[in-house]
Write a structure and sequence with these properties.
10 helices; binds acetoacetyl-coenzyme A; six-stranded mixed beta sheet; alpha/beta; 2-enoyl-CoA Hydratase, Chain A, domain 1; 260 residues
Length: 260
């Protein structure tokens, strides 16, 4: 499958998805969302060999500088609400992906770019990365769930300040407030994300998928996450990988998981 605004590259069990619109600082337009949806909804479930995904931006300047402002500048309420729901839907696909997704943030992650990074399960920031939700400068609220996920990730104290002031923060501050997992030397974001995903790739894939599902349930107001965890814990015992994991422990050897 070929894409126009994404570059897909497999490196062992890891899929690297690069948003490739450097001329627009990788801003999220309709095509980027359509293609991200194809990857996360259609392609990944078929790619049984993939154990983790990295999302990054092309060029040296930006991860993603936001939603494409030029695309929605003339929108009215109905179109803008639809755009917001569409973007949120694609980000939900990423958040609910059965394999872990890490944002390798190589530069500006503003507005929709910060929101995309926040929908990923982890964020690795290069030393020159910058984060922010500048929508109020444009007369807008965030549209791709920035008001929800920023508060989830950093709490209301820091989240409300960043959302109301539109202040852009550097990678170290993002780390201090809990927005990113790690700050690494500029250019090492993808390699660091790869190291983490290669560790996770050694674990039981079904247990990994169920753990992501249980964590996401914490934020689902209609579900009881504690009960959901108990159910998923029970379902794990019916997998071959559970038998393999416990047998390997007892036999003092490394488990060889089969994703079954
Ligand atoms: N949408 C569309 N085009 C964008 C863009 C965006 N979000 N961000 C940058 N670009 C384009 C610029 O228009 C410019 O294109 P031209 O060369 O054709 O003029 C090109 O990318 C390079 O950008 P700059 O010349 O502005 O680069 P800079 O180094 O001077 O500034 C920047 C970098 C500070 C990131 C600046 O580009 C900027 O402020 N970008 C917009 C950031 C922003 O407001 N993001 C939020 C968007 S709204 C949103 O995301 C809503 C939502 O939640 C759904």
């Amino acid at each position: 499958m070929t894409f126009q605004s994404l570059i897909l590259e497999e490196n062992g069990p890891i899929l690297i998805v690069t948003i490739n619109r450097p001329e627009a600082l990788n801003a999220l337009n309709k095509m980027v969302f359509d293609e991200l949806e194809m990857v996360f909804r259609d392609e990944l479930p078929k790619m049984q060999q993939i154990r983790g995904v990295i999302i990054t931006g092309s060029g040296e300047k930006a991860f993603v500088a936001g939603a494409d402002i030029k695309e929605f500048a003339n929108f009215g309420a109905e179109q803008a609400t639809a755009l917001s729901l569409r973007g949120q839907g694609v980000l939900f696909l990423i958040e609910n992906c059965h394999v872990p997704v890490i944002a390798a943030v190589n530069g500006f992650a503003l507005g929709g770019g910060c929101e995309l990074a926040m929908a990923c399960h982890m964020r690795i920031a290069g030393a020159k990365a910058k984060f922010g939700q500048p929508e109020v400068n444009l007369g807008l609220t965030p549209g791709y769930a920035g008001t929800q996920r920023l508060i989830q990730l950093v709490g209301k104290t820091f989240g409300i300040e960043l959302l109301l002031t539109a202040r852009i923060i550097d990678a170290e501050e993002a780390f201090r407030i809990g927005l990113v997992n790690k700050v690494v030397e500029q250019g090492q974001e993808v390699a660091t994300a790869m190291e983490i995903l290669n560790v996770i790739a050694q674990k039981a894939p079904i247990a990994i998928a169920k753990t992501i599902h249980c964590i996401n349930t914490f934020y689902n107001k209609e579900k009881d996450g504690f009960y959901e965890e108990a159910v998923q814990f029970g379902l794990c015992t019916e997998t071959e990988d559970f038998k393999e994991g416990t047998t390997a422990f007892i036999e003092k050897r490394k488990a060889d998981f089969k994703n079954k």
